[in-house]
Design goal:
17% of the residues lie in helices and 22% in strands. With 106 residues, the protein is α+β, with helices and mostly antiparallel strands. The chain binds FE2/S2 (inorganic) cluster. FE2/S2 (inorganic) cluster is lined by residues 25, 38-40, 42-49, 71, 84, 86.
C-alpha cells in the first residue's frame, strides 16, 4: 500500500491507501474519490479520469503516451501536467503522489 493524495478543485485533500499494481484511477474508484468518473473503465477512451499531476511528481509518473495525448484533447481544461489517471500504474515509487481533480470532467 502507498498513499495517494487527491486534491479537489476546492483545495481539499483526500488521502487514500492505494494498492500497488492497479492504476491511480482504479484506486480512486475503490476509494470513492469524487470527480473521477472513468466511464470507459480504463481503456483510455473517455478522458473522464483526468487529473493534474503535482509538478514535483511529473518525473516519476512519466509522460503520456501518444494515445493518451490524443484522448486528453477531449478533456476539460487541459494543462501541461494533465494525465489520464487510468494510464498511471501505482508503484512503490509513487508513495505520496499528489494529483488534483479538475472542477469537471469532459
Ligand atoms: Fe476512460 Fe481513463 S477511464 S480514459
Amino acid at each position: 500500500m502507498v498513499k495517494i493524495n487527491f486534491i479537489n478543485h476546492k483545495g481539499e485533500t483526500q488521502t487514500v491507501n492505494a494498492e500497488v499494481g492497479p492504476t491511480v484511477m482504479e484506486n480512486a474508484i475503490r476509494n470513492a474519490v469524487p470527480g473521477i468518473l472513468a466511464e470507459c473503465g480504463g481503456a483510455c477512451a473517455c478522458a473522464t479520469c483526468h487529473v493534474y499531476v503535482d509538478e514535483a511528481w511529473k518525473g516519476k509518473t512519466g509522460d503520456p503516451s501518444p494515445m493518451e495525448e490524443d484522448m486528453l484533447d477531449f478533456a476539460f481544461d487541459v494543462r501541461p501536467t494533465s494525465r489520464l489517471s487510468c494510464q498511471i500504474k501505482v508503484s512503490e515509487e509513487l508513495d505520496g503522489l499528489t494529483v488534483t481533480v479538475p472542477e469537471r470532467q469532459a
